[in-house]
Write a structure and sequence with these properties.
This protein is about 45% helix and about 20% strand. The protein is α/β, with parallel strands linked by helices and about 140 residues long.
Length: about 140
């Protein structure tokens, strides 16, 4: 299945949290360690209903989280490090390079989505301003 218009095929699966790995910069990966500020925010504001599936790469017999490392750290804290089920979109990749390309594609998608939302908001504000200006000028 396709998600987020990404050029990859995914399978939706439920995995256990202890099956998920994070490639941090400390172990040669592209993720920084989870930001403590965001982890605490996610713990404080946790709403299981709003939890979205993790995007995960399956490579070399292991599952690696591509994004949302802070949410994973928050869930570990909420569940007191005990294993818990996690909904995931899993993409099979052949190499670490493929995983990095997926991460880049995901970030580009998120950037474009945010940019389009901002453009639409600003256009709406601009249109509202133009209507007010026209009405004020008669």
């Amino acid at each position: 299945m396709k998600i987020y218009n990404l050029p990859y095929d995914f399978t939706k699966r439920t995995l256990m949290s202890n099956e998920l790995f994070i490639m941090t910069m400390e172990n040669g990966g592209y993720h920084q360690n989870p930001c403590k500020y965001w982890v605490e925010q996610y713990v404080r504001d946790f709403d299981k209903i709003k939890l979205k599936p993790f995007i995960v790469c399956h490579r070399g017999g292991k599952y690696y989280i591509v994004d949302d490392v802070e949410m994973k750290a928050a869930l570990d804290k909420i569940y007191d490090e005990n294993p818990y089920p996690v909904e995931c979109y899993v993409c099979n990749v052949d190499s670490y390079g493929d995983e990095v390309e997926l991460f880049i594609a995901l970030k580009e998608y998120e950037h474009n989505l945010a940019t389009n939302k901002a453009k639409n908001m600003l256009r709406g504000m601009q249109n509202g301003y133009q209507k007010v200006s026209r009405n004020a000028n008669g």
